[in-house]
Amino acid sequence: MRAITRGIVIAGTAIGAALVGAGTCVAAPAVPSGTYQGTTNAPAGELIWKGKTFQGDTVVNNFAFGLTGLAGTTSQDGYGNTVIDYGSSGLGFLTDRISPNADGSYTGAVYVGG
Description:
The protein is α+β, with helices and mostly antiparallel strands. Helices cover 22% and strands 39% of the residues. The chain has a seven-stranded antiparallel β-sheet with strand order 1-2-3-4-5-6-7.
């Protein structure tokens, strides 16, 4: 028990000293901003869904013929991913999780029921 406690204290002190000493830390990637063209592997999905538009902490999906809808709110999950909750659109069972790529694009997945 003593070794575990000591190890935690030493690790915490070292991390704190590194952050304070360096005066910098790594921030989570920002939530996307603007309109992003979408691609999907859903059957005929690209004929209907065209991408997402992000503004502040909200997102709206873009569909064919200039239609928009399916609004959601965004948050960060602590792992560098943006999570989109569609509860405000009455679809609380639907969640997107997108991750930034080095080229400025995003890769995501849709989760139904969790």
